[in-house]
Predict the structure.
Amino acid sequence: MFANLSKTQGYFIKVKCPFCNRESEIYIDKEEIARDPSGIIRIPIEHETPEPHLLVIDIDLHGFVRGAYLIRGYAVLEEIPVFAMINIVGMENFAKLLCWLLAYDNVHIYGFDQELVKSLRILLAYIFKGRKKLVPEEKARIKIDVFNVPFLEFSIDLIIRRLRFAIDRVKDSRSLVAYLRHEIGKYLDCLQVFEKVVNETAKRLTIRDLIQITENKLRDDEVKFLLAVLRAKGIEVEKKVTVPEFKITEIF
Ligand SMILES: [Zn+2]
C-alpha cells in the first residue's frame, strides 16, 4: 500500500485488496483529514466480487496507511434500506441512537412512523449483534423517540464522522450495515473489557495500556470515546485512567 502525495488538494491512494487482489485508487481530500480531530480518517472501500466485502483503511495527514482490515461474510445478508432509514430519521438522530445503545441496555424506541420504527429495530438488533439492547416498552428503562433522540452526556462526534464517511463512500446497503455492525461490535466488545479492567485495576492506566489490552484494535480517539461512554454509565474513569495529552474536561 502506498500513497502519492499531491501538494494541493489531496492524495491519490492506491490500495491492493488482500482478498480479491483488486487495486483501488481512491482520492482523499486533505482538508477532510485536517478537519478530523484525530488526524486520521477511516475509509471503507467496497468490492463486489467474488463476494461483497469491504477493505477498511485508516489514512493520516501524510498519506500513510495507518491501519487496514477486511470485512467479509455478509454476502447472504438481506438488504435493509439503511440509507433511506437514516435519511428519514436524520443522520444525527441515528448517530445518537447508536450511542445510546452503546452506553445503555433496556432501551425502547418509538416514533410516529410505526413501519420505520419496526425496520429500525431489525437494523439495530443486527448492528448490535442481537445483544439485548432493545426491549418492549413495559420493560424499558430508557424510552427514545427516534425522530427526536436526546443528547448524550458525551460527545458523539466520532460516531457522526464514521457515519458520514461511510454514507459518502459506500453504495451498497449490505456493505453499510456490515460496516456499522463491525465497528459497533468492536466498540461493544472493548467497552466490556474496559469496564472490567477499569473496575478491577489497582494501578493507574494510560490510554496506551488500554490500546494494548485491545491488541491495538483501537486508536487513541476511539479509546477516549469509549472512556467517555463508560463515564456516562457511572464508572469512575478519571480515578483509574491518566490521559496526559488532554485536560479531562476536553475529553468528556
Ligand atoms: Zn477486495
User: Anything to note?
Assistant: The chain has three domains: 2-71, 82-145, 157-169+183-251. Residues 17, 19-20, 22, 47, 53, 55 surround zinc ion (CB under 6 Å).
